[in-house]
Each structure stands twice: as C-alpha cells, then as structure tokens.
Amino acid sequence: MRHPLDIVAMFAALWLLAAMMLDALTPKELNAVMIAVAIGPAIVTTAVFYYLRCPRTDFAVMFAALWLISDIAIAFISPAQLPHFLIVLGFVPALLIGGVLHWQRLQRREQRLPAPSVKRG
C-alpha cells in the first residue's frame, strides 16, 4: 500500500536529486535553488497523480509533458543561454514515450487485422 508519507519522501528525494543533477549540467549562473523552484510544480503534480494511482500510460504521458514544461521553465529563468543538449534532454522523455505508444499501437493493429487471403479466379 502506498502511504502518503512514503510518497512525499520519495518525490522529495527525486526533486532534490534532479535539482542537483541539473545544477551540475547547467551554467554557473543558474543554481540549484532556481532549478528546484522551476521543477517543483512538476514534481508535486507527478506525486499527486502517483498517489491517485493514475494508469501507467497516462502517468508516462503526463510525466513527459511536465518534464518538457520544466525544461522550458528552466530556460526562461536562466540568466545565461543553456547548452543545446539540455534543450534536447527536455524532449527525450516525450520522444521515447511517443515512440513506445506508437509501436504498441502498431503491434495491436497487426494482431487485429486478419491476413489477406489470396483469391484465384
């Protein structure tokens, strides 16, 4: 069973870890506190959806969208220009999840369609 305090501790640790990792990757003008403020709403929203037991697919899509929004927020608050790999890093979860969902849809489509029969006249 998911206890609310366990969820708070888990997402607080993830929030701190993400802020420190992004602090190491970003320019020196952008510190961990600024990054933590930018990604905080996304972490809280993700934790709420985790607590509400959102379906996996919906949770993954929501996570990818919030990750991209956080990346854009970091770019807005940054006093210096961000490296290009950080901009690309914001799109990676959305591209991965979109690719997986597209592949699953193609797999289900192939299972539903019968093989074409050869008719000879």
Largest sheet: number of strands, sense, barrel closure = none
Radius of gyration: 20 Å
- Secondary structure tally, helices: 4
- CA-CA gap between termini: 63 Å
The number of distinct β-strands equals 0
Secondary-structure class = mainly alpha
Strand percentage, roughly? under 5%
Mean pLDDT over the full residue set:
89
Low-pLDDT ranges:
none
Can you give the helix content as a percent range?
A: over 70%
Order of helices and strands: HHHH
Shape: elongated
Structure description:
This protein is mostly helical and 121 residues long. It is built from four helices and no strands. It has helices at residues 4-25, 32-51, 56-77, 84-112. Helix 2 (32-51) packs antiparallel against helix 3 and helix 3 (56-77) packs antiparallel against helix 4. The protein is elongated and about 75 Å long. The relative contact order is 0.12. The mean pLDDT is 89.
Question: Which secondary structure elements does this structure contain, and how are they paired or packed?
Answer:
Blueprint: H1 4-25, H2 32-51, H3 56-77, H4 84-112
Structure characteristics:
mainly alpha, about 120 residues, elongated, about 0% strand
